[in-house]
């Protein structure tokens, strides 16, 4: 059983967020300004030091311009079948 914070699914989520931000042409500081938060929050989300809840995922998707369902498909594919909460 994998630990949630460093599970394959969590790592995939973090990488997908980084990839989406870069594809959209945002730096961490630019995204933070757009969201009205500190750059350090974006860094913690992307590094996996802080989890992303579903509402935050929707907000990030809107700000960056990605489909949250496509990102969830990436996470679902990476999550181990025996993963527990």
UniProtKB/TrEMBL annotation:
The keyword Cytoplasm does not apply. PROSITE patterns: HTH_CROC1. Transmembrane segments: none annotated. Gene3D superfamilies: lambda repressor-like DNA-binding domains (1.10.260.40). It comes from the Bacteria. GO terms for molecular function: DNA binding. InterPro entries: Cro/C1-type_HTH, Lambda_DNA-bd_dom_sf. The keyword 4Fe-4S does not apply. Keywords: Plasmid. Residues 17-71 form the HTH cro/C1-type domain. This is Helix-turn-helix transcriptional regulator. It comes from Pontivivens nitratireducens.
